[in-house]
Amino acid sequence: MTGTSGGLTNWAGNHSYRAGELHHPRTLDELRRIVATARSLRVLGTRHTFSDIGDASSLVALDGLRGCDEIAIDHDAATVTVGPTVTYAQLTPRLDAAGLALANMASLPHISVAGAVATATHGSGDALGNLSTSVRAMELVTSDGELVQIAAGDPELPGAVVHLGALGVVTKLTLAVIPTYRLCQRVYVGMGWDALEENFDRIMGAGRSVSVFHRLGERIREVWVKAAPEQPAPTELFGAVLADSPRHPVPAADPLNCTPQLGVPGPWWQRLPHFQAGFTPSAGAEIQSEWFVARDQATDALAALRQLADRLRPLILVCELRTVAADELWLSPNHGRDSAGLHFTWRREPAAVAAACAEVERTLAPFAPRPHWGKLFTARSTELAPHYPRLAEFKVLREQFDGRRAFVNRWLERTLAL
Ligand SMILES: Cc1cc2nc3c(=O)[nH]c(=O)nc-3n(C[C@H](O)[C@H](O)[C@H](O)COP(=O)(O)OP(=O)(O)OC[C@H]3O[C@@H](n4cnc5c(N)ncnc54)[C@H](O)[C@@H]3O)c2cc1C
To answer: What secondary structure does DSSP assign to 26-40, as a single string?
Structure first.
């Protein structure tokens, strides 16, 4: 079935899809035919990116595809295989009911696993890689209509996992799983910047997953700590005091939308994301950006950004600092270095945000910043290419999987000169 994408926007409403047609294949053979004959094609995920990364002259939605929402657990292999439309909101309770878990999650469960993995979506945690690092195998339809399987041990896997939509239509992903676990979430309010600078490792290591929320202000607003129930919970964290009521990271937003806090133990999937499935995550009318720097340069990079506070703050809803462990995925922003993610949730003012992004990028340039692929940034391929040591190999892989350039869209041309 084919229609138009007329009026379709991304979740944030700051990008209107330009695609002239939207396909809804029902079978794998139909999908293969669509892919093999499309001039320019992209998969429509859950649309939680903030740019034209997922746009092309044709789009394909996989929600009518037979098996698109399948979840197959393999206890012996400690893996789960998911269809292309499965979201973390669908997957995580199923895993927990089977006594299993994911190592980490993003701030929200609303997003598709396939779309999250494509852009190296991440959570926080010194010892935890981004969500793409859990991929053990993938199946995709390449632009000649061929169905390709890539498994652990295949030399292509580390190159293909963070694919930015450039290699084909992913129809299955196999993820590593671990035994289920419980966490408590606590929020600490009002830390000084000097405390973070002096005790960075102890603060970011205060739990399994730690997020620092601020607005480049005089003080840090909140530190969210997600820790094992057996871990002792101090009433004070380097000058920040334990919140006695639930919080939302965005000032004045309703904490009802957030996962339970106040130290109440609960399953991993109801504590790792900040926002609950079924509720609006974050602010809604917003644009997001994020840049990764080496973890050991996080406080220097934040100090540089704080110099821009007066100019940036009118646009900022909230900023978040998270840590991500290094990995070997070719296009991962965390490739080869333990990273700190410096995130901005901006007001939805696209022109002003684009100017602010350019200013942030100039300020962070000494720190070799790598942008979050799914969020908004302005850097072009000439500035970005030096930060990705495996980019040349990815270009060879792209040529191998998509020799006729059906998946190369405008975003890929300007971002990576693919
Ligand atoms: C409120 C909010 C909170 C967020 N929180 C976080 C966070 O905590 N951490 C973080 O890292 N990011 C976060 N993000 C960013 C976002 O989750 C990621 O950018 C993610 O890529 C979105 O996936 P999607 O499927 O919704 O996006 P889409 O734009 O639909 O897809 C992303 C890309 O993947 C491609 N794609 C999707 N499915 C397939 C497939 N089956 N085969 C081939 N290509 C495919 C698309 O074509 C597109 O290029 C957040 C975004 C929002 C709106």
So the answer is: -SHHHHHHHHHH-SS
Rounded percentage of the chain residues whose pLDDT exceeds 90: 96
Supply the CATH number for residue 109's domain. 3.30.465.10
Does 418 score more than 70 pLDDT?
Answer: yes
Is the same domain home to 104 and 32?
Answer: no
**In a shared domain, residues 219 and 365:** yes
Residue 283 to residue 281: CA distance in whole angstroms: 6
What atom in ligand 1 is closest to the CA of residue 165?
44
406 located within any domain: no
pLDDT tens string 88-139: 999 999 999 999 999 999 999 999 999 999 999 999 999 999 999 999 999 9
Number of domains the chain is built from: 3
Is residue 60 within 8 Å of residue 27, measured between CB atoms? no
- In this predicted model, what pLDDT tens digit does every residue of 238-270 receive, in sequence order? 999 999 999 999 998 999 999 999 999 999 999
CA–CA separation, 357 and 326 (whole Å):
24
From the alpha carbon of 168, which atom of ligand 1 is closest?
A: 43
Any residues with Cβ below 6 Å from ligand 1, and which? 11-12, 42-49, 53-54, 84, 106-108, 111-112, 114-116, 118-119, 121-122, 165, 169-170, 281-282, 288, 372, 374
